[in-house]
TrEMBL record:
Keywords: Carbohydrate metabolism, Fucose metabolism, Glycosyltransferase, Transferase. GO terms for molecular function: glycosyltransferase activity. InterPro entries: FucosylTrfase_pln, GDP-Fuc_O-FucTrfase. One of its GO terms (biological process) is fucose metabolic process. This is O-fucosyltransferase family protein. Residues 1-35 are annotated as: Disordered. Residues 1-28 have a biased composition (Low complexity). Belongs to the glycosyltransferase GT106 family.
Length: 552
């Protein structure tokens, strides 16, 4: 008989007599421990899932939650941070500085780092500028190209050089580029305010026709209004074949075309003839206007005078710790509630609604781990001292207005008291003609950074992009630039208990890596504006290097 079968096989009921209460043993009462509310809910949920019906009950809810999470429409932005912070996700550089400061001050082992930093730079040989200029006359022009250069100083520079290359490739006449007034940069400067226009036209004379205006007969067809001219909306990084197959026929038909905007509208990888024109425009034809060049050279001379103890050698640092840069990064530092209020306000002013969209998820810790947070002045100082640069090293700081500058600049000035800026090196009268023009101020910084013994880039962007290439063009193919891996720095700065010797060893490795990457050969995805070898330069043989050294 089965255990659960209560009916006897005979079909009649035969209950057994109840046992005597005296003989029946009484088991001790056992009461289960009371469950907490979470335990009770969990057990109910699990038991429901174990039933077949429970799966179908919760399947729609699980599906909807997964879709919302995948599409980033669940707002986790205001959730409290987890108790455990992954390494490199928190700004602890002030604690690190407090720990290292006594050991840093007592370290007398610093060698003359600025004189020895590039000792291994040219093991593979030097490179020399090599840009061929045409000596032939130009054939009849196919038409005129008018471009609008948008962005800041160096984004406009990209537009100018690419426009020269496209005009030469299409045998077109280039009209002096027009600078688009940008809502962020807010600089109304014209081409001739920043560059030497006469020198530009003269240098390109045998390769590309450049004029300052379109003939009146052509503009009559458009009521002398450039906005009536056909405007090409060209995709970023378009190939030269697109310009030949699509742009050229329209230009021949209309006699003039307009391309706006034009930044990065030509592929990095192009035929040698096109690359040659890019090199010619960037490294030879574009020279800053006389007022900018004169003041820039004056500041270079003053920096060298202040670096007499290091044979006139100084470091230039491109520091991006302005309020808008910090706000855009969405990184968290040590400013507490004031910093949060300032950054929220700056984000709303500059990018209204971009960072407060419903479902927008921002993870400041992950941004820091990925090396995307701007380095603070303190972090730059720690890095350079760890690399062996002592307090007697002269530094030129190329930067806009530093956020909360008095507090953030104090430790950097403690580590490098000989630090200078363009404002510190000039009188009010000298700088006044440039102060309300962001591109002209950037051009002054560019000039001083170009001629420094060491250039330090901390955030990326067009400014260091062009300086890397320009310095390579001037210094035998080597950029003489420190480019730290900020992902590694984030981990290192998040360890306040590290010792000075260990910290210094890590920084020297970063320095050595920058040296090893100083000379690079252009890949198809690289730009000749940052990697000019081999399109704009050629390698020197040992005989040429010996002759050059004997001549100097």
């Amino acid at each position: 008989m089965h255990a659960y079968n209560r009916v006897p096989s005979s079909g009649q009921s035969s209950p057994s007599a109840p046992s005597s209460p005296r003989l029946r043993s009484k088991p001790a009462p056992r009461f289960p421990a009371p469950k907490t509310l979470p335990q009770h809910l969990a057990s109910q949920f699990l038991s429901l899932l174990l039933r077949r019906q429970g799966i179908f009950l919760f399947a729609p809810l699980i599906y909807i939650s997964a879709v919302l999470f995948y599409n980033n429409t669940l707002d986790f932005h205001n959730l409290p941070p987890p108790h455990y912070a992954p390494p490199g996700s928190v700004y602890r550089s002030p604690q690190l500085y407090a720990n290292l400061r006594p050991q840093m001050a007592s370290d007398n082992s610093n060698a003359d780092a600025i004189s020895t930093i590039w000792r291994n730079s040219y093991k593979g040989g030097e490179w020399r500028p090599c840009i061929d200029k045409s000596s032939r006359g130009l054939p009849e022009s196919n038409g005129y190209i008018y471009i609008e250069a948008n962005g800041g100083l160096n984004q406009q520079r990209t537009s100018i050089c690419n426009a020269v290359a496209v005009a030469g490739f299409l045998n077109a006449t280039l009209i002096i580029p027009h600078f688009h007034f940008h809502s962020i940069w807010r600089d109304p400067s014209k081409f001739s305010d920043i560059y030497d226009e006469e020198f530009f036209v003269k240098t390109l004379a045998n390769d590309v026709r450049v004029v300052d205006k379109v003939p009146g007969l052509i503009m009559e067809r458009f009521d002398h209004n450039m906005t009536n001219v056909y405007n090409f909306r060209i995709k970023a990084l378009s190939s030269v074949s697109y310009y030949r197959g699509t742009v050229l026929p329209k230009m021949v038909e209309e006699q003039i075309i307009r391309i706006s905007p034009f930044a990065n509208r030509l592929s990095f990888d192009a035929p040698p003839a096109v690359q040659r024109l890019r090199c010619l425009a960037n490294y030879e034809a574009l020279r800053f206007s006389n007022p900018i060049l004169s003041l820039g050279q004056t500041l270079v001379a003053r920096m060298k005078d202040r670096s007499a103890n290091n044979s006139g050698k100084y470091i230039s640092v491109h520091l991006r710790y302005e309020e808008d840069m910090v706000a855009f990064s969405c990184c968290i530092y040590d400013g507490g509630d004031k910093e949060k209020i300032d950054m929220d306000a700056a984000r709303e002013r500059g990018w209204r609604g971009k960072f407060t969209k419903r479902g927008k998820v921002i993870h400041p810790g992950a941004i820091r781990i990925n090396g995307k947070c701007p380095l603070t002045p303190l972090e730059v100082g720690l890095m350079l001292r760890g690399m062996g640069f002592g307090k007697s090293t002269s530094i030129y700081l190329a930067s806009g207005k530093i956020y909360d500058s008095e507090r953030h600049m104090k430790p950097l000035l403690e580590m490098f008291p000989l630090l200078q800026t363009k404002e510190m090196l000039t009188s009010h009268e000298e700088l006044a003609p440039f102060q309300n023009y962001s591109s002209r101020m950037a051009a002054i910084d560019y000039t001083v950074c170009l001629h420094s013994e060491v250039f330090v880039t901390t955030q990326g962007g067009n400014f260091p992009h062009f300086l890397l290439g320009h310095r390579r063009f001037l210094y035998g193919g080597h950029s003489r630039t420190i480019r730290p891996d900020k992902r590694k720095l984030a981990l290192l700065y998040d360890n306040p208990n590290i010792g000075w010797k260990s910290f210094k060893r890590q920084m020297l490795n970063v320095r050595a890596h920058s040296d090893s990457k100083g000379i690079e050969i252009k890949r198809p995805s690289d730009s000749v504006y940052s990697v000019p070898c081999p399109d704009c330069m050629r390698r020197s043989n040992k005989t040429e290097v010996l002759k050059s050294s004997l001549a100097t």
